Amino acid sequence: MFDIQEELKKLPDKSGVYIMKDANGVVIYVGKAVVLKNRVRQYFQQSANHPPKVQAMVSKISEFEYIVVDSEVEALMLECNLIKKYKPKYNILLKDDKHYPYIKVTLNEEYPRILKTRRVDKDGAKYFGPYSSGFAVNDTIDTLKKLFPLKTCNKNLPRDIGKTRPCLNYHMKQCLAPCQGGVNRDEYRDMMKKICRFLGGQYDEIINDIRMQMESAAEQLDFEKAALLRNKISSIKQLSESQKVLSTDLEDRDIIGYSADSTDLCVQVFFVRNGRVIGREHFMFEGEANEDKGYSLSTFIKQFYNTVQFVPSEIVLQSEVDDSETIAKWLTEKRGFKVALRVPQRGDLVKLVHMVSENAEITLKLHRERQSREGIVPAEGMSQLVKLLGLEEAPARIESYDISNTGSTEIVASMVVFENGRPARQEYRKFKMKSIEQQNDYGSMQETLFRRLNRAKREKEEAAENAKFSKLPDLILVDGGSNHVNAAKQVIEELGYSFKIAGMAKDDRHRTKSLVYMGNEYDLSGNMPLLRLITEIQDETHRVAVEYNRKLREKRYVKSELDEVEGIGQTRKKALIRHFKSVAAIKKADVAQLQEVDGISEKIAKKIYEYFN
Predict the structure, then answer these.
(1) Which of 385, 357, 359, 409 is nearest to 522 (CA)?
(2) Residues in domain GIY-YIG (predicted)?
(3) In sequence order, what DSSP letters do the residues of 113-138 get, joined into one string?
(4) Higher-pLDDT residue of 195, 444
(5) Which DSSP symbol is given to 584?
C-alpha cells in the first residue's frame, strides 16, 4: 500500500535522516541528507548510474521514513546512532563512536590540559563535541595553545613541581611553567574556565582578538599571516557549531513534543540515553486534538511511564502539563532518584523540543494520508456524510472551491475534486479572476462557478472532444458559511442546475468546525470520521488555491512591463509593486506619487511616467 512515487513528492526541503525498509518492514539502509527531497529521490531515478550494491538495495525498498533535523551535522550524528541500532544490511557498519572527535578539558586534574579524544568517560573532565572534522578540532586546540599559555606535557602536578627544568614552550612564552610553581593553581584554573566558556559557545572575545591580529597583519601587508588567521577564525566557527542530536552532558532524558490537526493529536517521544538519541516513538490519540494540551500531555505521561521500566532523570516537555509537581514526585519514587519535568525557555533544548514537535507534525500528516490511502477515512467519512445530510446515496464526485488573494491582486480560485472520497488530482482546476478587481470572496466564488459550469454547458452543446469540464459534481462544497453557500447557489440556479451544495465553516483557529447545508449548520466535533474527511477536503482545496496565488505572485515579481523601463531593476520593481500592488496602478500614478516609493528619484519617476504615458 506504500506508494513510493507519491511519498517522494512529499519529502521536505530539510536536512535529516532517511530509513529504507524492505517488504517485511526490516530496516535495510539508513542515510543522511542535506536536503531530504533531493537525496532520497536520487535513488529512484531511472537515469541515475547507481553502483550494483545500490541497485540491489533499491530493488528491495518497499517503503521509507525520515526524521528531520536542523543541520547536516545533526543528521550525521543521528545516522550513526540509527545504524548502530538497526545494523542495516546495506550500510557500512560503524563499530563505535571513535569516528568523531571530542575536545576534553581535564578539569579533574589540578592543572588541567586540553586534549583531543574519541572517547567520553564519566571521569570529572569536561567534554565538548563530538565534531565531524578532526582537522577543525586540531586547529582550534593549536589556536588555544597559542592564545593561552597552556600546559601541554603529561607531568603529574603538583607531585612533579620543581623536579625538572622548564620546557621550550616556557621560553617561547607559550606556557606559564606550572611545573616550576610559576603560576598559582587557582589562577591557572580560572584561565581554563575561560577556555571552557569559549568552547561552550562564548567565543566572541577570542574571535575578535584573532580578527584584530588579522587586520593588523593585512595593514602590514603580511597577507600570508592574515590568511592563516582568517582560516583559524573559520575553524573556530566550524568547531562551535551547536549539536542537539548528540550532547556531551551524558544525561538521560526523554524529549516530548506533539502536534494536532482538526481531529487528532500525535505525541512524539525522543529517547536520549547517555547523551545520545537512541530512538523515538509516536502515539496517536484520535479525537483529542481539541482537548487542553496540559491535560492531554499529563494523561499521556502518567499512562506511558506507568508501563515503562526505565524513567530518565529529566523529561523535557513542549509545554506545561497539569499536576506537574505531583507527577514529578511519583516518577521520583518510581525511579528511586530525582526526576524533573522541564519546559525549556532558551538554549539547545528549545531547539530540540521544536525538532521533536516538527517530527510529530510530519508523523500525524503521514498517518492521515495512510488512512486515506487505505480507504479508512473515505469509507467511514462518506458513510457519515450520507447520514448527516440525508442523502440517498454517497456522492461519487465532490467538487470543493476556495478563494485566495493578495489584497486586490492575484485573486484566484481552486477547484479540487474528490471521487469516492479520494482526491482525483487530474481533475483539479485553477481559475484567475477576470471580472473581479477588488477583494470580494462572494463575487469571486460566483465568477468561478459561472465559468466552470458555463464551460461544461458549452462543451456539451458543442460535443467537444477534449472536454475538461464535462463531468458534473454530485455535491459542491465551498469554503465558508451560509453567505458563501447562498452566493454559490444563486449562480448554480441561474445556469439551470440543481446541485447539492454545502459550506465548510471554520472556527476561530481556522480549523474545520461544521457543515452548512440547506439552512442548517451541523457541528462536526462529535463525528470524527466525517470531520476527518471534510478537513482533508478543505485543507487540500486551500493548499491548491494558496500555491496558485503564490506562483502568480512570484511570476509578477519576476517579469512585468516595468522590465522595459530604463533604470528599473529588480529592487525598484519590487518596491513599486509592493507600494502600488499592481502594474495597472503604477500606470495611473503621476510623478509625485511615484516618488513616494523608496528608491524612486524624480528622474526615475519621470522615466516611468513618460514610458506609460
Answers:
(1) 385
(2) 13-92
(3) -EEEES---SSS-EEE---S-HHHHH
(4) 444
(5) H
CA distance 381 to 536: 11
Please state, in angstroms and rounded to a whole number, the distance separating the CA atoms of residues 272 and 279.
8
Domain extent listing, the chain: 4-86, 253-371, 390-555, 560-612
CATH 3.30.420.10 fits 253-371, yes or no: yes
Q: Report residue 294 as a C-alpha cell.
A: 496540559
Give tens-digit pLDDT for 34-82: 899 999 999 998 766 776 667 888 989 999 999 999 877 787 778 767 8
Per CATH, is 390-555 categorized as 3.30.420.340? yes
- Rounded Cα distance between 548 and 559, Å, is 17
Domain 560-612 has CATH 1.10.150.20: yes
pLDDT the model gives residue 47: 65
Residue 213 burial by CB count (10 A; 0-12/13-18/19+): exposed, middle or buried?
middle
Identical fold between 253-371 and 390-555:
yes
pLDDT tens, residue by residue, 378-427: 888 899 999 999 998 999 999 999 999 876 678 999 999 999 988 999 99
CATH code reported for the domain at 4-86 = 3.40.1440.10
CA distance 193 to 199: 10
Strand, helix or coil at 117?
Answer: strand
Over residues 191-217, the mean pLDDT reads 79
